[in-house]
Structure of Nucleoid-associated protein ACD591_04415:
Amino acid sequence: MFDMFGMMNKVKEMQAKMKEAQENLRHIQVSAEAGGGMVKATASGDRRLLKVEFDETLMNPQDKEMLADLIVAAVNKAMDEAGERGKEEIKKQTEGMLPNIPGLDLSNFGL
């Protein structure tokens, strides 16, 4: 017979684990570089840009467009890596909570 109360408790437990995992994402920091390390971006696991650093030689007005391109590249790379780390954290926190259902991917939940 189907245990409705057991299922509800399992859902509540999973919601608590998901919330905890989402809160932990902000503590994950990922850095990525572009232009051979001339630009570095740091993002959190919840996909927030935390810091952008760049080599001061890029402050030349003639290199303005290149600097912008390198910043975009470094930020996109950091965001991608932060997203992957976030998915790993969510998966780790919710592992074993639900049966393996083909096509059901909760790793993007809240990201």
